[in-house]
Structure formats: C-alpha cells, structure tokens
Design goal:
single chain, OB fold (Dihydrolipoamide Acetyltransferase, E2P), six-stranded antiparallel beta sheet
Length: 124
C-alpha cells in the first residue's frame, strides 16, 4: 500500500478510500507507541458514527487507547481477524491490521485530514 494515498488524523488513525467505502486503522507510529496490542474492541457495527467520535478501543500491554472516527459514516464491517490475532495491528497496521470499513456520509471530510507529509511532521 502506498502511504501517500492515505489520509491521517491527529489521533493517529489512517483512512483509505475505495469509492465511497473507507478502510480505517491506526498508523505504524501509533502501534509503536502503544506496544504489543492484546485486544481490539469495536462494538459499533452498523452504527453511524460522527467524525471525531470514539468507535472502539485498542488494548495494549501498557495502556488502553480510544479509536476516533476519522470520517463520518456507518461502520459496515469490522476486521474479524483482529479478534483472534490482535497482533496484526502491530505487524501490518496498513494491511491485514485494518480495523473497520465505513460507508462514508461526506467524502469531502477527507479534505480536513492530513496528508503523509503533514502527518510525518506531527510525529517527529
């Protein structure tokens, strides 16, 4: 996956748009800061969540962190692999470690998110 094709939030989520469906996960920086992820809890399937609202949590050995919705929409799929393999978020945060798929309400909200260069400067 080309990281330049993604959009990013200040809360370290990434978004990849395919038509009007968006994949969402956490960034490599975020998983590195969290450490070994032991549990991903997302109980918002079929819910409409507004941009900036919490849609789940990630539990690591050291801490629990909220997951914030980067773009408003309906969560239409949760990555079920994470139930038995939460370490996919550590090993492949931009691939098999994706968290949810969203049917976007307003794709123009992506314009408010960061590009790779802006996100990289945030994490330095």
């Amino acid at each position: 996956m080309n990281l330049k094709d993604l959009k990013y939030t200040n809360d370290h989520e990434w978004v990849k748009l395919e038509d009007d469906i968006a994949y969402v996960g956490i960034t490599d920086f975020a998983q590195g800061e969290l450490g070994d992820i032991v549990y991903v809890e997302i109980e918002t399937l079929n819910d409409n969540i507004e941009m900036g609202e919490v849609f789940g949590t990630v539990e690591a050995v050291k801490t629990v962190s909220d997951l914030f919705m980067p773009i408003s929409g309906e969560i239409i799929e949760i990555n079920e692999k994470l139930e038995s393999e939460p370490e996919l978020v550590n090993n492949d945060p931009y691939g098999d470690g994706w968290m949810v798929k969203i049917k976007c309400d307003n794709i123009s909200q992506l314009d408010d998110l960061l590009d790779l260069e802006a996100y990289d400067s945030l994490t330095k």
